[in-house]
From TrEMBL:
PROSITE patterns: CYT_DCMP_DEAMINASES_2 (PS51747)
Record protein name field: CMP/dCMP-type deaminase domain-containing protein
Cited InterPro entries: CMP_dCMP_dom, Cytidine_deaminase-like, NTF2-like_dom_sf
Domain of life assignment: Bacteria
CMP/dCMP-type deaminase domain boundaries: 7-131
MF term (GO), any: diaminohydroxyphosphoribosylaminopyrimidine deaminase activity
Length: 276
């Protein structure tokens, strides 16, 4: 019986996920596995994080084992347990750039890179360049399990146990029946100093969302990450045909949000989250 493309993708992505177990541990990097497979279903190369040195990434480690002129690359698929990086401090080029330079036509991955070290948009960059990008969420829990230093420890309350999907859904909907139970009665939303726009209670926050939605404002949560007793959300705010990107941080104590901050830059959001 002929194997379907979907079944082939699952089989090879599982191979990539399994390779992450070989990664030397690092508290400041992900454990990732990658496999490159040609159009005929033949494995061309594999790689995993820190395979040859402390900075090498999985996709990079696999690609460097192949001749750049290999005519199988345009029809090949890169399988990676994590979204290929688009921002990188340890090398001149990101894995997304390396994949594009190699001419690979297809990428399959399991988990979007969370907002831990950088803000990654590798999937978007690849798709914009004409690469077919497939995400298989069914492997995401295995990727999290391979990275316990990032995902393994729940913080303070039950709200942030896992990916904080309940908070993301509530923020997107603005529904008081979903969001209200997650907020402390005296939750504060604002900056260091009080202004006319600062919210000081659950009711203030819910009224803000109600007014915003009535005025046509919509919020989409692209990614969430938990750290130091806080949930960091990458949000897109759309109103009047205009879109803005923000990072909202929800401080959680005993399972309830007690404070909310908004920042235009990820580094500032993470810095406040890490203050604990």
């Amino acid at each position: 019986m002929t194997e379907t493309q979907a079944a082939r993708d699952r089989r090879w992505l599982q191979r990539a996920v399994d390779l992450a177990a070989h990664c030397p541990p690092s508290a400041t990097a992900f454990a990732v596995g990658a496999v490159i497979v040609d159009a005929a279903g033949v494995e061309l190369a594999t790689g995993y994080s820190r395979e040859t040195d402390e900075h090498v990434h999985a996709e990079e480690s696999a690609l460097v084992k192949l001749d750049p002129a290999d005519d199988r690359l345009p029809g090949a698929t890169v399988y990676s347990s994590l979204e290929p990086c688009s921002v990188r401090k340890s090398r001149p080029r990101s894995c997304t750039q390396l994949i594009l330079a190699a001419g690979v036509g297809r990428v399959v991955f399991a988990l979007r890179e969370p907002l831990v070290f950088v803000d990654c948009d590798g999937a978007e960059q690849l798709a914009a360049a004409g690469v077919e990008v497939v995400r298989l969420d069914e492997f995401a829990d295995q990727v999290r399990a391979a990275n316990p230093h990032v995902f393994g420890q729940p913080v303070d309350g039950q709200l942030v146990d896992g990916p904080a999907a309940s908070l993301a859904a509530a923020v997107e909907s603005g529904d008081p029946e979903l969001l209200g139970p997650l907020l402390h009665e005296n939750v504060r939303w604002g900056g260091e100093e009080d202004t006319a726009d600062t919210c000081h209670s659950r009711g203030d926050v819910l009224r803000w969302y109600g007014t915003a939605r009535a005025n046509g404002l919509r919020v989409w949560v692209d990614e969430t990450e938990t750290r130091s007793g806080a949930v960091v959300c990458k949000v897109r705010i759309v109103a009047g045909g205009q879109e803005a990107l923000r990072y909202q941080v929800f401080r959680v104590v005993d399972g309830l949000v007690v404070e909310i901050r908004g920042y235009p830059e990820l580094a500032d959001a993470l810095a406040w989250a890490d203050r604990g």
